Amino acid sequence: MKPVDEYFFNQKEPYQSIMLYVRSVILNTLPEVEEKYSYRIPFYNIGKKPMIYLNILKGKNYVDVAFVQGILLEKQFPVLKNDNKRKQVRSIQLRTIEDLDHENFVELLHEASNSLSKSKKAWFI
Predict the structure, then answer these.
(1) Per the database record, which ranges form the YdhG-like domain (predicted)?
(2) Peptide bond preceding 14 in cis form (omega within 30 of 0)
């Protein structure tokens, strides 16, 4: 079993179901995305640049769907929040699968992919 698969299957519910659902949406929406296991969490890269990662922050009760260049997308997609005072990363916090607006998320994935493809660096701040 790949480390990223182990990570998902070792999560408690409802986090496991939420993460597996988000993973399937990402992989089905962006066939060019590469799933990696870095820093002990799943990352989704476009080329060699990280675009999204999934995490459960200590002391929080949600899955953090974090966009690396989220600061560039937060005006167009107000669902992205600045959690933990991060400089560049913005995220969607999911407590249930129903919290995810599928159509909006797919649009956000396409926009994030296009933005990252045009960018020279993944981390710019």
Answers:
(1) 16-112
(2) yes
Query: What 3-state class would DSSP assign to 56?
Result: coil
36: tokens are: 């990696």
pLDDT band at residue 17, thresholds of 50, 70 and 90? very high
How far separated are the first and last CA of the chain, in Å rounded?
Answer: 35
Measure the CA–CA gap between 109 and 28, rounded to whole angstroms.
11
pLDDT at 122 over 80: no
Using the structure block, give the residue that is written with the tokens 């870095």. 38
Planar angle of CA 81, 77, 12, nearest 5 degrees: 50
Q: Would you state the pLDDT for residue 91?
A: 97
List the one residue out of 75, 89, 76 whose CA is nearest residue 41.
89
Q: Which residues pair with 63 in a beta bridge?
A: 94
Give dist(CA 92, CA 83) in Å, integer.
Answer: 9
Per-residue model confidence as pLDDT tens digits over 56-73: 988 889 999 999 999 999
Tell me the CATH number for domain 3-118: 3.90.1150.200
